[in-house]
Amino acid sequence: MTIRNIVFDIGNVLVRWDSLGIVEAAFGLSGEEAKARRHALFGETDIWRALNRGEHTEAGAKAAYVAAGLLTADEAEAMFASLYDSLHLLEDTPPLMERLKAAGYRIFALTDNVREIVAHLEGTHDWWAHFEHVTNSAEVGVLKPDPRIYAHLLDTNGLVPEETVFFDDMPGNVAGAQAAGMHAFVFTDAAQAERDLVSLGVPL
Questions:
Q1: What percent of the chain is modeled with pLDDT above 70?
Q2: What's the CA gap between 79 and 75, in Å, rounded?
Q3: Is the peptide bond before 161 cis (omega within 30 degrees of 0)?
Q4: Cβ-count burial of 110 within 10 angstroms (0-12 exposed, 13-18 middle, 19+ buried)?
Q5: Each residue of 112-146: pLDDT tens digit?
Q6: Residue among 7, 17, 90 at smallest CA distance from 48
Q7: Whole-number Cα distances in Å, 63 to 57, 66, 67, 106
Q8: Hey, where are the domains in the chain?
Q9: β-pairing verdict for 106-111 and 183-186
């Protein structure tokens, strides 16, 4: 079946996402101490996942970290400032999107993300306009690889799974897309993504 739709994750596909680097920069930590702090803030507690599910605003998440005794108010501000500073563009991906768009493919995003971060990226990067629609976990209320977020992407945009390709840096999220009937690949860089697309008959 002909490929018509290309769906991109955002973190580590279009902009860098490095929670360990965020912790290191915000708190001046390194090594095992930084890893332990990252686990406490992004893994062990549900606050970050709840923010990505849209259950907190960014301000609400900061308050929740403080209320849980995980951060002081100043530390919460420092962590989010570091987060925004860390969102470096992966420069090879937007040109691939532009070529696909020019060739007539429909371009979408599917991201586990925070409303405020999405607004920041949309207001900062011209490539955001290439997306016909962005499916964001904070708007849907579930995270990848929950089948409901893939169904939302497909149903909202009227996409045929077999005509759709998804790129994500997380193997579990790729498996979720494949279970929903899409073609899906682990994203490592734009050059590999191009090879993956060519393997499906997309002319590039």
A1: 100
A2: 6
A3: no
A4: buried
A5: 999 999 999 999 999 999 999 999 999 999 999 99
A6: 17
A7: 10, 5, 6, 39
A8: 5-15+88-199, 19-86
A9: unpaired
What's the whole-model pTM score?
A: 0.96
Say whether domain 5-15+88-199 belongs to CATH 1.10.10.10.
Answer: no
C-alpha 48/C-alpha 191 separation (Å) is 31
